[in-house]
Amino acid sequence: MDDRLKPFLGTWILDPDQSNYEQGAVPLGGSLTIAEKEGEIGFFMKTVEADGETYEANFSGIADGEDRPMPENPFADTLALTFESDRVLTSEAKRGGLTIMSARRELNSAEDRLTVYQTVHVLDSGSFTNEAVYVRAH
Q1: 125 — pLDDT class (breaks 50, 70, 90)
Q2: In DSSP terms, which residues pair with 127 in a beta bridge?
Q3: CA distances from 131 to 1, 29, 46, 74, 94 (A)
Q4: What residues does each domain of the chain span?
Q5: % helix / strand / coil in the chain, to the nearest 5?
């Protein structure tokens, strides 16, 4: 396992009061679990939206910067995960070679707060960035 991944691992709880969304309403709550298995990083997200609906999304990849196929994803056909530094892990999802979504996950120096900047690129509408702030679950 890449040592840079260790501080990201675990379950993170969304802090809606510290989060800021350009697209849609800030969820009422949520969690993000990051796990590693045999070199692959898994992301397991759950949110309770402002309307009370619960949504779950999961994806996984290898943090080597390579565009890798995502055959079971209806929105993107490739995903690249990259460590920009010891505290920044990014992902870029593409469809037909065009970036449709990117996420920048930044750990604070105490490694107890994770900020995720997720940018969605929408044809004809521009780009929107949601800033989700998570605290480490204990």
Answers
A1: confident
A2: 121
A3: 28, 14, 16, 24, 20
A4: 3-136
A5: 5, 60, 35
For the chain, what's the residue count? 138
- Tell if the pTM clears 0.70, that is, is over it: yes
Residue bearing the bigger pLDDT, 1 or 113: 113
Mean pLDDT computed over every residue of the chain? 93
SS3 (DSSP) at 52? coil
Nearest by Cα to 106 from 119, 115, 117: 115
- Residues whose CB is less than 8 angstroms from the CB of residue 31 and which lie 6 or more positions away in sequence, other chains included: 11, 12, 13, 14, 45, 46, 134, 137
The bridge status of strand 88-95 relative to strand 68-69 is: unpaired
Mean pLDDT (whole number) for 52-69 = 93
CATH topology of domain 3-136: Lipocalin (2.40.128)
Task: Provide the total of helices (H) and of strands (E) in the chain, helices listed first.
Answer: 0, 11
Q: Which residues pair with 95 in a beta bridge?
A: 98
Burial class (CB in 10 A: 0-12, 13-18, 19+), 61: buried
Residue 65 token pair: 């910067």
